[in-house]
Amino acid sequence: MNLQDKLFIRKVRAAHTRRDFLAGAAAGLGAFGLGGLPAFAQDMPRERKFLFFWAGGGWDTTAIWDPHYDVTGVDMEPDSVLGNIQGLQFTSGPARLQAERFFRRWGRYTAIVNGMDVHSVGHDSATQFVLTGTSASSFGDWPTLLAANARYEYPLPHVVFSGPTFPGTNGAAVVRAGGGTLLELIDGSILGRADQRAPVPAQPADSQVDAFVHQRIAKYAAEQTGLGKARADSLLSNMERTMELEGRRFEAGLDDLGNNVLDQAVKAVELFRLGLARCAMIRIPGGYDTHGSQLPQGVMQDNFLGVLDELFDHLARTPGQTAPYLIDEVVVVATSEFGRTPKLNGGGGKDHWPYGSALVAGAGVNGGRMIGKTDDRLIAEPIDYATGLPSGSGDILNVESFGLGLLELGGLTPADFLPDVQVLRSLIRNPR
Fold this sequence. Notes:
Blueprint: H1 3-31, E1 49-55, E2 81-85, E3 88-92, H2 97-106, E4 110-117, H3 123-132, H4 142-148, E5 158-160, E6 174-176, H5 182-187, H6 203-222, H7 226-252, H8 261-273, E7 279-283, H9 295-317, E8 330-336, E9 339-340, E10 352-353, E11 355-362, E12 369-371, H10 399-409
Parallel strand pairs: 1-7, 1-8, 4-12, 5-6, 5-7
Antiparallel strand pairs: 2-3, 4-11, 8-11, 9-10
């Protein structure tokens, strides 16, 4: 069964199930004078949503993103050739058919960023640098900052389906969706799976309890001032988040569709479409720490672009939450903790290298662009941050500037987070 068939079947089922659920829930809330479920997704701002993909282990940037042919300093994969589609140069050939298809269809939405200095060749430290731009444990990663500083509150601000996360001081914005327990925790059904099982309330009783507790907290919050009011409002907000998600779980499809990388991506963009989340993180399948053989890199990266091709087809066909279609609302970011050495080692693999690459595609992205550059030894060259092009008077591109470019693409003010750091505005179609 293909993706479109899965979505159609789920939406037909969801229409009936959610109608029945909301009828009972609204009746329970009405009995306590609340008039209905909270509606976080109403009157949402026109702000971009962000779907992050992470290739754990350190992908080889030359496998697709940063090809170097006819030079002695870089070992390229045999039987590969230089591809050039929609202004993007990439490693092509018989083993890159999915990459060619993706760039042919979606290259105008896509920027490839090369030559990012990630400041480390250690897995853990480089991961933190790439995702946060700093080694400070208190600093949240880019999706967390985008979610925590959104103009409006989302029930599930940043959903981590898989992959790394650095919440910093914004842990309340991060929700782990892996393991299948998220909805069970919210609706209480996990009580029936505990070692000492507890009874799960029936739906009408559960709705009445929610309504009663909501009313009591709201009344208490209205009578408070200062810190007491802030804490009561926070508790009330968290409760409304759970009620909103429970009421719309059937639309969101968090409990079906499967769990492969495409399924997780579709779940994420469904949450975006419904106004339930702003950001999500998904790990790209495969082991990219290829010290022993470099050949899997091209296969894994080509397969990933095959997934992105299906995802972008879905984004282009599906109405958005604040834009005509999701492709006009969602930004896709794919990267890894670092690159790999330009030359093969004795085992036919490549080792860690401190210059990385990223793909950024979707809403507001300055597409059809190669941003940043490495030389014939795969070492970053200085660039003009405004154009993304090599410049003798420019600076080496660093990951913190890349991340700030994402924050500005998301409508935030980069100087509020990392002052005195340049912003990679060449990522943005119409920068400030």
